[in-house]
Design goal:
The structure holds two protein chains of two kinds. By secondary structure, chain A is an alpha+beta fold. Chain A has 17 helices and twelve strands. Chain A has a six-stranded mixed β-sheet with strand order 2-3-7-4-6-5, with helices on both faces. A five-stranded mixed β-sheet of chain A has the order 8-12-9-11-10, with helices on both faces. In chain A, helix 11 crosses helix 14. Chain B is of the alpha+beta class. In chain B, the strands form two sheets. A seven-stranded mixed β-sheet of chain B has the order 1-2-3-7-4-6-5, with helices on both faces. A five-stranded mixed β-sheet of chain B has the order 8-12-9-11-10, with helices on both faces. In chain B, helix 4 runs parallel beside helix 9, helix 10 crosses helix 13 and helix 12 packs across helix 16. The longest helix of chain B has 19 residues. Chain B is globular and about 60 Å long. Classes of the chains: A alpha+beta, B alpha+beta. Chains A and B meet through strand 1, helix 1, helix 4, strand 6 and helix 6 of A and helix 1, helix 3, strand 5, strand 6 and helix 5 of B.
Chain lengths: 444, 469
């Protein structure tokens, strides 16, 4: 059993965080064996957290098979040339450490945790898994079945179905934020050849644009030595390329995914933002959107949930824009019989926000919120490691963590409201509903 | 063995700088005890339990109030009331409310706090993770709403539909629906029979008067624990607690105890949930003792051996053979005896019968052959490391401490790992033979009704959408 909570809106709030003053002064950043190492020692005792990435995500998939990057990432913990997957798992189990891999639109991302004394072992295993996966045929066959099973189960989720449909509709094939139809992805997994997986690994895995962030109770000099040894002689890798932006929608698009026995409907309303995180206007639009859809005092939660009681959770935000133009979207949950009222109320708040903009008082409160969240968000090794990796992925130096509060503080009301008007087109948004959506005539 | 010893030493180091900190002396408080880094005090005027854990890694802290009331305190007609009341606790008091711009969410979002409230079987908690200078302001609101909540019908109505939507979100998930029915089948008399969210009709119909009765019964300082964790000075924190909580009186009547005990289960039970879906789930539950029972540690080690990681028996016998997509386990850690549930999520092509038989065969193998020293050692190392990770920040510490408070002994937060260190293969085999009994078993199947899937995608606007999966 899981405890139930009010966490939906707070999770959205947590996505928007800033950084403390003088973070950069404590960061050690150095190229080690070609890898961009970013290390930060904190006062936490014994815990070390790491995050890293290199460009080997789905958008680099060969035209013949879009599942290849995912399969490569998933094969990393299926055995190396030195040992099988069970031996690797045993070594990690014995010290209570973890290493995991995930493939996103642009990056192969890796993360893990260990105790201070075990960092050399973990760095060695990480290097082994990244550099010398053995790609055993038997494990490849098992993995394909496991992934297909996971995808089939995901089809039961209204959130998964709605998010996939939104990403497929808003972004073109080849864009990092595009999500293929699940059946097409399953077919690609089934058709994938091990030779293609090996070839992709050879072509894309290397230190060229690899980043490793290590935060916590870490002896940085020793880490540098361990890293140099573990990754000595590693070469190759690719640079992140520029991706063409998604074309603006020409008209309103609406899609309903009818699913039986789903008493909650997942609702998404949004568009391609047209902005990378680092672009001009991006921060202004982010802060303006936070006034609409972050926290319990955001306009959506305060009205659609708190006053009208139409949803458990609703929020708005920008996402997936580190390397390319991202998404601007509202996400909400509605009971089928309250769906129409919920959508109407949401649209009312959106129209008002767009037409009249945010107020000076709202902007000042949100600035205070974002800057205050900084202290709290970076108080754990997870929070700090994620923020450092995000900064460099977005194209900033680590000094961005110190600059962020000032950038937020400097935003003017005109800049925020101007960005809303300039980048959003309410009449051309994409609407997705997934769940037991009743026919329009039977709703009350 | 060598790997097993090292984490223990590391944990001792983690606590060592504050093991011998002298208790703060503040008039109006009785010092109770110090265990590890945590000191317990009692506010003399009303019996409020106070736990202080100073930890100065960052200039933030978490303040949390845990009420010893959860869904185990509910009966038919009021199921879900604890949780609905938790939601209404955000609707304001005459002093702190949205109209004045002084509500808890307005304060905490203005200062960039991360805050929440959660309800579970045995407890309800309210907390905020904030910069240390905001403790006074937040505590003022938290203390005020302990006894001065508005609790208005005009607030209940819209909040009821909010909570009902939360219920509906849970009903979307087949595994959650199955878990509710497992507990409802395994428990006939004890209130763990119903889930914390409650039954839909009770959520919709419980009156504001009943909620007021609930509030007036359980929301008192002598039924609560206030915890401060993070960057603060103990004496100053106690002064603040006295300032904000000192004038609140004790409960006028004794807090009611739950005296219903679950009758002994004398035969296996089964339940099935059939809904639209893609893949089945087999869940096998056995009754296990309460959180404070000495067998809990061995049961938790057994669960890791069975379900966690690629070397677990469940992974090797099922997932690695493409019979399941995952095998998970959950040992209930509650005030009263609860369930140890094993979940096996079926892979395409496998059957419930096939997977259930393999799970049961694995349980029988543990009962007959036991587990190895290496399995126990690795499981314990993993769990002890997880304990260290759970001390990474005041918010994580609070989350874990909260469950020990609810279970009835907060000192297990510090000493609980000692029990893990003493778990042996023989102990694991013994608890398997004690608790994994057929007559104490409740088995649940989620059976997907694939034919229930309706139209693939309906298009309502141009351009013609692509066919969806």
């Amino acid at each position: 059993m899981k405890p139930i909570s009010l966490s939906f809106a707070l999770l959205l709030a947590a996505l928007v965080s800033t950084a403390p003053a003088q973070i950069a002064d404590k960061v050690v950043r150095e190229k080690i064996a070609g890898i961009d190492l970013i290390a930060y020692k904190t006062d936490v005792q014994d815990v070390v957290t790491f995050r890293g990435s290199l460009p080997a995500g789905d958008s680099f998939a060969p035209k013949e098979n879009l599942a290849v990057p995912t399969l490569v990432g998933e094969m990393l913990d299926q055995g190396t040339t030195k040992q099988d997957k069970f031996a690797i798992a045993q070594k990690l189990d014995d010290i209570g450490a973890s290493i995991s891999f995930a493939v996103s639109g642009v990056m192969l991302e890796f993360r893990g945790k260990c105790l201070r004394k075990d960092l050399p072992v973990v760095i060695s295993l990480l290097a082994e898994q990244l550099r010398t996966p053995s790609f055993p045929e038997s494990e490849f066959a098992k993995l394909k079945k496991q992934l297909i099973g996971d995808l089939q189960r995901a089809l039961e989720s209204t959130d998964f179905r709605a998010s996939q449909a939104f990403a497929e509709t808003v972004f073109p094939i080849g864009h990092p934020n595009y999500s293929p139809p699940t059946k097409a992805f399953v077919a690609a997994i089934e058709a994938a050849k091990l030779a293609d997986v090996k070839a992709f690994h050879a072509a894309y895995y290397g230190p060229a644009q690899a980043t490793l962030v290590v935060v916590g109770d870490v002896e940085i000099d020793a880490l540098k030595t361990d890293l140099a040894k573990a990754f000595d002689g590693w070469t190759g890798g690719k640079a992140v390329t520029d991706f063409p932006k998604a074309a603006p929608a020409e008209k309103l698009r609406e899609q309903t995914i009818a699913m039986a026995d789903k008493p909650n409907v997942t609702y998404i309303l949004g568009q391609a933002s047209g902005l990378r995180y680092k672009d001009d206007d991006s921060l202004a639009l982010r802060v303006g959107t936070a006034v609409l859809g972050t926290g319990f005092t955001g306009r959506l939660m305060a009205n659609v949930r708190d006053k009208e009681g139409l949803t458990y959770g609703i929020g708005a935000g920008l996402s997936n824009d580190s390397f390319n133009d991202g998404a601007w979207q509202i996400n909400a949950n509605f009971a089928p019989n309250l769906l129409d009222k919920g959508m109407e109320s949401t649209q009312r708040q959106l129209d008002l926000w767009y037409k009249e903009g945010v107020t000076a008082a709202e902007l000042e409160r949100m600035k205070s919120n974002l800057i205050g969240t900084f202290k709290v968000g970076l108080a754990t090794t997870d929070g700090l490691a994620s923020a450092l990796l995000s900064a460099v992925q977005r194209g900033y130096d680590v000094t961005w963590l110190d600059e962020y509060p000032k950038k937020v503080e400097a935003l003017s009301l005109e800049a925020v409201n101007g960005a809303i008007k300039k980048h959003l087109q309410l009449e051309k948004m994409t609407v997705i509903k997934a769940g037991s959506v009743p026919p329009p005539t039977s709703r009350n | 063995m060598k790997y097993r010893l090292l984490p223990f030493a590391a944990l001792a180091l983690a606590f060592s700088p504050i093991l011998h900190a002298a208790p703060a002396e503040v008039a109006g408080f009785t010092f109770v005890k110090t265990v590890g880094p945590i000191s317990e005090y009692r506010l003399e005027s009303n019996g409020l339990q106070v736990l202080l854990l100073p930890e100065h890694a960052s200039p933030t802290l978490t303040f949390m109030v845990t009420y010893r009331v959860g869904s185990r305190n509910e009966v038919t007609g009021t199921t879900g009331a604890t949780h609905l009341l938790e939601h209404l606790m955000f609707k304001g008091t005459p002093e702190f409310n949205r109209e004045k711009g002084t509500s808890v969410d307005q304060l905490l979002e203005r200062v960039g706090g991360i805050y929440n409230a959660t309800t579970w079987l045995d407890r309800t908690n309210y907390y905020a993770n904030v910069a240390s200078e905001n403790l006074d302001k937040y505590m003022a609101i938290e203390a005020d709403r302990m006894r001065n909540l508005w609790l208005r019908e005009e607030d209940r109505k819209p909040e009821m539909t909010v909570v009902r939507n939360e219920f509906e979100i849970g009903e979307n998930e087949p595994t959650q629906a199955l878990e509710k029915e497992l507990y409802a089948t395994a428990y006939m008399a004890h209130p763990y029979h119903h889930s914390t969210i409650g039954w839909r009709s009770d959520i919709e119909k419980v009156s504001i008067e009943k909620l007021r009765e609930f509030y007036d019964t359980f929301y008192w300082p002598d039924n609560a624990t206030a915890s401060v964790i993070g960057d603060f000075e103990p004496a100053q924190a106690l002064e603040l607690i006295k300032k904000h909580y000192g004038a609140i009186t004790k409960a006028p009547k004794p807090i009611p105890i739950v005296y219903t005990e679950e009758p002994e289960q004398t035969g296996p039970r089964r339940v099935a949930v059939k809904r639209a879906g893609e893949l089945g789930v087999v869940a096998i539950a056995h009754k296990v003792p309460a959180a404070l029972h000495e067998d809990q540690a061995a049961l938790r080690v057994l669960n890791v051996i069975l379900t966690v990681g690629k070397n677990s028996r469940g992974y090797r016998s099922l997932t690695d053979k493409n019979l399941t997509t995952s095998v998970d386990g959950d040992v209930g850690f509650f005030h009263d005896p609860s369930l140890y549930i094993l979940y096996a999520s079926l892979a395409p092509g496998s059957t419930h019968e096939q997977v259930e038989k393999i799970v049961l065969d694995e349980l029988e193998r543990v009962k007959k052959e036991g587990v190895t020293e290496g399995e126990v050692s690795a499981a314990v190392a993993r769990m002890l490391a997880a304990s260290s990770y759970a001390r990474d920040g005041s918010f994580k510490i609070a989350s874990k401490l909260n469950e020990f408070i609810a279970a009835g002994d907060w000192t297990l937060y510090v000493n609980g790992d000692d029990a893990l260190k003493n778990v042996t293969p023989a102990a694991v085999k013994r608890v398997a033979n004690t608790y994994l009994l057929e007559d104490k078993r409740t088995t649940g199947w989620f059976i997907p009704n694939v034919a229930g899937e309706t139209a693939d995608a309906k298009k309502t606007a141009a351009p013609a959408p692509k066919k969806k999966s």
